[in-house]
Write a structure and sequence with these properties.
single chain; 555 residues; mainly alpha; 3 domains; disordered N terminus; binds heme-as
């Protein structure tokens, strides 16, 4: 018979077999970081006007590798690895069937990633990470991406089934917070990735195979952005999982409110999907009313981030005061600044303040006219995903990898991780700062310097583009440092036990209402909002489809 101690031990340590599955995902994520990061460095050098790519390699080719490997592959693999570990840690070891689904998902994704990457390397798919039509890639590139998505559905099904199993075994009780958060993220992901799956399967694949001559570009972009905006929250929510439920434990505090954390996640589920038009505000073919409606919904999706900021401030202040911090800000210096597991995500949070303000500017219909398609947008997403999210993932890697590999995060590695965070923040401030400023002057994003470098305007932009190259080079040093730390945690760090920190909820928090876990209510509102925001404009787009494209004369 298992004793209570043994049962608890099972729950605090991730089962080795689940750990192996999680680690497989994390390895691919860091390989993607190495290759994608190198391409990022090359890009900034090309844009500075001082460097030409050798061996006929194209600018758009490395830009595609950079965007696909970092934006789509690093994120998705790290998130799945993290989510598998989190569910196994908080809801118990996966069953053999659930783990098998995880492995099938992993290999499906990996076959797809390899196929798509080979096509990009062969210069058969230099279509950037958004693969907008009418840029056309080899059909294997699209098929590969479709496999990546199908793989995530299979792996996701395993995790959702663990949640269902837990709820059945514990009727009337709120599920473990972290598992609940994973399931919200997966629900959002599955609903939104249906859009890109339809785009790839029914538009891009038949077109690239030559079965149809034309593609309805507006419809394809609409389907892409139906997916593309929730995609950015699919990146953000695991970072929020760390902030809400892990950082409090690392700093020795408690979760400020379980209900507030769950509410904020549910609001993301509702408001992150029906907002894709805020990426298409300058596109003809969608009427102003629907753009306006989606701008309003975009501003609604800011609310859960403001709730998160409030909750984090409360957690930090309560802990800082418990440690003796006095006065309005005295608690601040009591926080564990020397602990990289806290410091890296904290710097990510600080970056999210200007990054979020930038997002609100982007979403504000008229201001979007100024920044759209300028390198300001690139500055925005390097602050959000490449700083806020990535620094939080690095902070998580410092305990997650040694926990899974049975090693320890040594003092030297901790010191190096603090340096890594500072290098990253410094390099990113220069690079993203320069991108924001020169974007306001109209410098385009995604443009090969050789196509515009000779113009008078471009000469004014050059100092900022050199600043971007300087920032990019510093960031590359940051990539080398994190890869060194990760390699240490996988192969060389001393053997030992590392804690998987999961915080408890504060005893002062209100009881969590079960309504927050009533999926019937939330999924119904979510689908109703999507139908409301998209049905009429999509019908209009299809009615006006160009002759010869799929959709033409459908109505
Ligand atoms: Fe964005 C474009 C609007 C958030 C990523 N975004 C992009 C693209 C990417 C991206 C990749 O409306 C480019 C896509 C492309 O290739 O074309 N974005 C927003 C808005 C938000 C937002 C309103 N974006 C994100 C996040 C991303 C991301 C998060 C990745 C993870 N974005 C846009 C729009 C465009 C866009 C337009 C299209 C532009 C165009 O024309 O092409 C909001 O979610 C932001 C809300 C955030 C906040 C900040 C809250 C602050 C917190 C930190 C608290 C700090 C603490 C520490 C506790 C309101 C939670 C305190 C310590 C101290 C010392 C003070």
């Amino acid at each position: 018979m298992t004793t209570i101690a043994e049962k608890t031990k099972d729950l605090v340590r991730v089962d080795k077999r689940d750990g192996k599955l999680a680690l497989a995902h994390i390895y691919v994520a860091f390989i993607a970081l190495a290759i994608g990061g190198l391409c990022g460095l090359l890009q900034t050098l090309v844009r500075s006007g001082t460097f030409t790519l050798p061996w006929g390699i194209g600018y758009y080719q490395i830009l595609t590798i950079h965007g696909v490997l970092l934006g789509l592959i690093l994120t998705t693999y790290f998130i799945f690895g993290f989510q598998i570990a989190v569910v196994s840690r908080t809801s118990g070891t996966l069953t053999d069937k659930q783990r098998l689904l995880g492995w099938i998902g992993f290999w499906t994704m990996t076959i797809g990633t390899t196929a798509s990457s080979i096509m990009i390397l062969l210069n058969e798919a230099s279509v950037l990470y958004t693969f907008y039509a009418p840029l056309q890639a080899h059909w294997i590139f699209y098929a590969g991406l479709a496999l990546v998505i199908v793989g995530t559905w299979i792996g996701g099904a395993g995790l959702i089934s663990k949640y269902v199993e837990w709820r059945k075994a514990n009727p009337g009780q709120p599920s473990p917070l972290l598992t609940f958060m994973v399931v919200v993220n997966l629900a959002m992901w599955i609903i939104c990735s249906l859009g890109v799956a339809v785009e790839v399967l029914f538009q891009l694949l038949p077109w690239s195979l030559g079965w149809v001559d034309k593609v309805d570009v507006l419809l394809s972009r609409t389907l892409f952005w139906y997916f593309g905006h929730p995609l950015v929250y699919f990146w953000l929510l695991p970072a929020y999982m760390v902030w809400y439920a892990i950082i409090p434990k690392i700093i020795g505090g408690k979760i400020f409110s379980d209900s507030l954390a769950r509410l904020s996640f549910m609001l993301f589920l509702l408001f992150s999907i029906p907002v894709g038009f805020h990426h298409q505000l300058t596109e003809p073919g969608i009427s102003s009313f629907w753009k306006f409606l989606q701008v309003v919904l975009t501003l609604m999706v800011v609310i859960p981030s403001l709730l998160t900021a409030f909750s984090m401030f409360a957690t930090f202040e309560i802990r800082g005061r418990a440690l003796g911090g006095k006065g309005v800000l005295g608690w601040f210096k009591e926080l564990p600044w020397g602990d990289a597991r806290f410091f890296a995500p904290f710097v990510g949070m600080v970056a999210f303040i200007p990054a979020g303000a930038g997002g609100i500017i982007n979403a504000s219909h008229q201001m979007n006219q100024l920044i759209h398609n300028t390198i300001w947008v690139t500055g925005h997403f390097h602050l959000t995903v490449a700083t806020t999210v990535l620094l939080t993932f690095f902070g998580a890697a410092y305990w997650l990898i040694p926990h899974l590999t049975g090693r320890v995060f040594t003092k030297q590695m901790n010191r190096l991780a603090i340096i890594q965070t500072i290098v990253w923040a410094f390099g990113m401030s220069i690079m993203s700062g320069a991108m924001h400023i020169v974007g306001l002057f109209g410098a385009p994003r995604r443009s090969d310097f050789s196509t515009y470098g000779g113009s008078a305007q471009a000469t004014e932009w050059i100092p900022y583009q050199i600043a971007q190259a300087v920032g990019g080079t510093i960031l590359f040093i940051g990539i080398v440092l994190i890869l060194y730390i990760v390699a240490n945690l996988i192969w060389f760090a001393p053997k030992g036990e590392t804690e998987f920190p999961v915080a408890e909820v504060s005893e002062h928090a209100e009881k969590t209402p079960m309504a927050l876990e009533n999926w019937k209510i939330w999924l119904t509102i979510c689908i109703a909002l999507i139908l409301f925001a998209y049905t009429v404009p999509v019908i209009e787009i299809i009615q006006n489809a160009p002759p010869g494209s799929i959709g033409y004369k459908l109505w």
